[in-house]
Amino acid sequence: MMRGVRFSPYTGREKTPFEKYMDVFKELLLYTSGDVNEAIDWLRELDKQYDISGDPDYKTDQFLEDLMKKGMLREEIRPDGRIQQVPSARMEQLIRQNALEQIFGKLKKTPSGNHRTKKAGTGDELAENLRPYAFGDPITSIDMHQSLLNAQRNSGIDHFQIREDDLVVRETFHNSQVSTVLMIDISHSMILYGEDRITPAKKVALALSELIRIRYPKDTLDIIVFGDDAWPISVGEIPYLQVGPYHTNTVAGLQLAVDILRKRRAPNKQIFMITDGKPSCLKESDGSYYKNSFGLDDYIVGRCLNMAAQCRRLQIPITTFMIARDPYLQQFIKKFTQANKGKALYVGLRNLGEIILDDFEKNRTRKL
Question: Which Gene3D superfamilies match (predicted)?
Fold first, then answer.
C-alpha cells in the first residue's frame, strides 16, 4: 500500500438531471408503445412521487423543452390535422442502445462476420495452432518466422536451406454468417393475467438488432410478429408494437420465417420464437380461420408439430422462449421442440434477454 495515499470507492460521474429523466423516459416509451404524450403523463406522476432529477429547478416541462432542442422528438401531423410529438430517429437509436446495454451488456464493435466456427482450414481469422504445410495451402498462411527457425534447426547455419518439411502454416478459422428470424407473439394472451410479456419481448428484439448491427454486420436479422396472421416488421417499428385482439397463429409465423430464410444465403439459419406457448389459430387454404381458445386443439397442435419437423428437415433449428408458467402449455412446447430437435427455454421475464444472448452465441457454431 502506498504511504500517504487514501483510497475511496469509485462512484462514477453523477448523472445530470436531463440524463436521469432520459433513463426513465426511454423505458416509458417502450411501455406506452411510443406514445410521447402518455409517456410524459406518466413521467409527471413519477416525478411527483420520486423527484426523478433531484433538482427542484429541473422538472418535466424543462426536460420536454430540452428533448425538443436536442432533436429527440419531432412533430408529426395526425390524420385529424392535429400536431403530435413522436420520437425522432435519434431517440429510436437511443432506445435500441439502452435495450442492448440492459440485456446484453456493453459490447465493442469488432470486424464483420465476427463469430468463430469449429471448422479449421482456409479461413480469415488467425488461430494459435500451427501445422505442417500441405499442398494447396496459400502462401500467405505460411508462418515465416517459425518456418525459418525450423530450417535453421534442421539444416544448420552453414548449410542453410528451406525444405518443404520446414514449412508450417497457421490455422485459420472460417468466419461464418448466420441468418436469424425473431418471431414475437403479439396475441392478446401476452398481456393477460396481469403480466406484461410484450414489453420484455420488444426489448429483446431491439437489443438483438443492435447487437447484430455493431458486432456481426455480416449477419441478418428479420423480425416478424404473429397473431391471427404473421407479417414482417422493421427495427424502427419495434418500440411501437402493441398486443392486438388476436389469437396465436404459430403456423403462419413459422411459414413466414421459413420463406424468409429460404432467400437468405447464409450457411447457418435459425429461428427464435418468443411466445406464451399456446397456438390457437390456423388459416385454412380457402382463406377462412380456424380458431379455438379453449385448451390445446389437436388439429392446431398437429399442424404446429408438422412445421417444426419441416424446419428440422431444412436444418433450421428453432429455439423457443416460453414465457408462461403453465405446465400444460409447457408440455406442448416440449413436443414441439422434440419434433424440431431444437431448444426450449422456460424462463421468467427478467432473464429473458440474457438467455437469448447465450443461445444466439451458441447457435453460431451448432452445425459446423
Answer: von Willebrand factor, type A domain (3.40.50.410)
C-beta contacts of 27-30 below 8 A and 24+ residues apart: 27/98, 29/87, 29/91, 29/95, 29/239, 30/95, 30/99, 30/199, 30/202, 30/203, 30/239
Alpha-carbon span 116 to 122, nearest angstrom? 13
Residue 323, classed as helix, strand or coil, is coil
The answer regarding whether domain 178-363 maps to CATH 3.40.50.410 reads yes
Q: pTM for this one? A: 0.72
* pLDDT tens column, 211-261: 888 777 888 999 999 999 999 999 989 999 999 889 999 999 999 999 999
98, 103, 109, 114 alpha-carbon torsion, rounded to 10°: -150
Q: What are phi and psi of 282, to 5 degrees?
A: -140, 150
**What is the C-alpha separation between 152 and 139, in angstroms, rounded?**
20
CB 281 within 8 A of CB 248: yes
Task: Note the pLDDT tens digit of each residue in 313-341.
Answer: 999 999 888 877 778 888 899 999 999 99
Contacts of 134 (CB under 8 A, 6+ apart): 169
Q: Compute how many other C-beta atoms are within 10 angstroms of the C-beta atom of residue 20.
A: 18
**Residue 274, Cβ density class (10 Å: 0-12 exposed, 13-18 middle, ≥19 buried):** buried
Q: What does the domain layout of the chain look like in residue ranges?
A: 17-87, 118-175, 178-363
Residue 68 burial (CB count, 10 A) = 13
**Residue 188 in grid coordinates:** 392478446
> Is pLDDT above 50 for 298?
yes
Which neighbouring-strand residues pair with 272? 182, 319
Grid cell at residue 343: 431448444
